[in-house]
Amino acid sequence: MKQGVEALEAQAKNQRNYIREQAAQQKQQYVLQLDMEVKQQELAIDQQRQEQLMQLQQSIAQQKAALEQQTMAMSMEYQQRKAEEEMQRTQMEMEKKQQEMQKKMAQEMEKFNQTASMNNFGAGGGYSSQQPSGKWDSKWENPNQSRNDSRWASNMQGGGSQRGMSEQNWNGW
Questions:
Q1: Where residue 164 falls among pLDDT bands split at 50, 70, 90?
Q2: Using CA atoms, how far apart are residues 44 and 115, in angstroms rounded to an integer?
Q3: SS3 (DSSP) at 36
Q4: I need a surface site. Which of 7, 47, 126, 142 has the fewest CB within 10 A?
Q5: Long-range contacts (CB closer than 8 Å, 24 or more residues apart) made by 164-167
Q6: Under the phi-then-psi rule, with left for phi > 0, alpha for psi from -120 to 50, and beta for the rest, what region is 74?
Q7: pLDDT tens, position by position, 87-132
Q8: Under 8 Å between Cβ of 121 and 127
Q9: Average pLDDT estimate for 39-44
Q10: Radius of gyration, CA atoms only, the chain
């Protein structure tokens, strides 16, 4: 009997050892499987992050290109406006100089008229006593003259707000 009890105990011990070894192997397989699942999930997360990073970089590049294009368009618009303003300023300066020259010419004509009337040119000194009407004769107008020349002619006729030569000055000629 002693041998039977020892044999049963040995068998039970072997079975326990076998169960423990099986449990240890299953634990090890479970840990390995769990580690693989975690690594797969980490890899999927890394891939997703990489895709999102690429999309973000593409979006940034597109926004940068759009901003550069907008900047260029605004710069061109600024340069155009600046050129237009410079052209307007130059035109205004030229018109101002023209008005000054017309005013100077009118003053010189006034002086000439005063000198002429003092020297009695109109009273038989070789000039006609008949005075011009102060209006431009159409035969003297140049059909090819510029807009500014037309405006000057209009001023000479008395139609403009800034008259180059007054009718009085013209009549005194």
A1: very low
A2: 105
A3: helix
A4: 126
A5: 164/102, 164/103, 164/105, 164/106, 165/102, 165/105, 165/106, 165/109, 166/106, 167/134
A6: alpha
A7: 999 999 999 999 999 999 999 999 888 888 887 555 544 444 444 5
A8: yes
A9: 97
A10: 54
